[in-house]
Amino acid sequence: MRVKTLHFSYPTLDEQIGIAPHQNPALFPNRLEACYTTTSVQAEKITTPALLVKTFRGERIQQASNDEPANVLLDRIHTKQGI
To answer: What gap in Å lies between CA 10 and CA 45, rounded to an integer?
Structure first.
């Protein structure tokens, strides 16, 4: 069996530093926290309204069979309050 010697050239340290910002920030621990913070803020902006919509539609949990629908409950409350 014959194995050839392979030669690799690596970028200089300055070139590596120049390339690094264009890579995935999650790969660099010093930028990971900033990436996490940005992502979590974006996720919160998206999920909060979506959760509220699902909540008001009653889609977040199964309704118990003995629970009255929300519109019936609201009608009953309005009737009691004279609205």
So the answer is: 43
Predicted TM-score (pTM) of this structure? 0.31
Q: Which two three-digit tokens encode residue 8?
A: 């690799």
> How much of the chain exceeds pLDDT 70, in percent?
90
Quote the pLDDT of residue 8.
Answer: 82
Mapped to the 3 state alphabet, what secondary structure does the chain carry? CCCCCCCCCCCCHHHHHHHHHHCCHHHCHHHHHHHHHHHHHHHHHHHHHHHHHHHHHCCCCCCCCCCCCHHHHHHHHHHHHCC
CA-based torsion, 49, 52, 57, 60: positive or negative: positive
Domains of the chain by residue range: 10-59
